[in-house]
Amino acid sequence: MKLPFWIAACLGCILMYQSVAVAAEDQNTTVQSVQDTSVQDTQEQQTQPATQNSQDVKLPRWIQKILGEKTKAKGPPEVSNPTPYGETQPTTPLYQTIPGFLQAPYGPPAFGPPFGTTHLLGDWGGVQPWLQKRGLYLAFDVYEDLAGNVSGGKKRDETVAGQVGVTLDVDWEKLLNAGSWSRDLWLHLLVVNGHGRNLSRLFGDNDNQVQQIYGSRGNVIAHMVWAYFEKAWLDRKIDMSVGWIPTGVFFQNSPWVCNFMNVWLCGGEAPTKFMTGGRGWPSGNIGTVLRLMPIRQFYIMGGLFAVSPHAYNGGISGWSWGQDGLGKLSTQVEIGWIPEFGRNHLIGHYKVGVMYDNSRYNHLYEDINGEPWVLSGLPARKESGQTSLWVIADQMLLRHGPGELNGLILGGYYAYGSGQTSQINHTLVGVLMDTGAAWKRPLDSVGIAVLWANFSRSAILAEEAAATHGLPLPGANFGVPYGIQGHETIYEAYYDFHIMDGLSIKPDFQYVNHVGGTRTFKDAVVLSTAVNIAF
């Protein structure tokens, strides 16, 4: 199979860099091993400064003169803690750096670039410490993904999809030097600019996206993803967020899902995030989330969100919060258990949740008389309410160092959506992830995944009726199909190279079986390389 030149070149550069970096690096520093300690000792360890092999590449002198010496901030240990949306930097987890996030189910709410507190430009010449002392946490991130299907699909093509993002988290107690009323009161802002073309659409898959960063941002300079206040009480055992919130930031999500590129994983589970009442990142919703976490190992949270009947929540830019037709509500509830097993505290995350949207949606097959609407021409029957449920779990099998995800992890999820109104009604995913500690690359990560989705009986009946009578195939929340649908399976593998603080490169392979859930096109092979720079 002959690869396009640009893909071969990218992979060649990565392999060349890898060999040079391994030869040049001093491997005398190793990952801090986890000792036989109590849970209390482990928690104390997480709050103490520690050193770790950062795999830094030594820069040329002329670059060092421009950037100056980077100041290593004192604080919690830098760990190989793969975080959402492509970053495998030696991050100081936000749940330790930003106290308002401390008791979130997995540390901070899972969100995309920018993220973390690691910066390519160090402390910005003292600017970052000055800002954080005043309660302002600012991050700037650039993410670019070069992808192409080298085989199969409707046609062969290649695209670039990317994103520039800025986050600002404000600690009002520090900023205002105020009293107890402002303790654990935060404002969280995230604005992104997205660009590029959707490769999956080009090779004939309207149901899936093989590129992590694409879609729902609109062709605008600044798309508002979230803007919400967070307030905690009782030593953060009670936490409430109010404002413009993507539901998947808190619900039906996990911190490891966006180590993978495929959007059925990244940004929340499918089909929930493709249902109007559960739209996830980067689509926001006016709403509120209440989280109760009486102990670190257990939480329960509920959310109430306004349902937007439009293609874009908040308009194409995400800033139009006062859209018309916001009279319906989506309710989500989730319960989670976070145990630790054995002397190495092998952490697991187990959660189950449900969503109910009280809006009315068109039945995918039946008209008002119970006949196929694609043939009768009558209006589709309205279904009252839409339901989704999910079960998500991951378990560390071997630990390689401190951190919730620093080790060999087995994970996956099952999710269901109402088949009468959602084209996909069942999804099942399994993943296996690890860091590069075994080959002395502790800040690298590697993973494989199998993703399977089943198309609902109602959607298939409507497609069969239309095809039998020579009519255009109907589409719904997963787009218009190219043929009668059944199921679709994705096989994915990635390796994330940590190049230096704030810079990572991730080659990714995906095999798409039954493109778009049909047999219309040959199975597709997609190769991509993502570059993430956290300035």
Automatic annotation (TrEMBL):
Q: Where is the composition biased (Polar residues)?
A: 80-92
Q: Per UniProt, what is one Pfam family of this protein? A: OprB
**Mind telling me which InterPro entries this protein's record contains?**
Carb-sel_porin_OprB (IPR007049), OprB_Porin (IPR052932), OprB_sf (IPR038673)
Protein keywords:
Signal
Determine if Signal is one of this entry's keywords.
Answer: yes
Q: Where is the signal peptide?
A: 1-23
Q: Where is this region: Disordered?
A: 34-56, 70-92
* Keyword Signal set for record: yes
Q: What PANTHER family is this protein classified in?
A: PORIN B (PTHR37944:SF1)
Q: Which family does it belong to?
A: Belongs to the OprB family.
Q: What is this protein called?
A: Carbohydrate porin
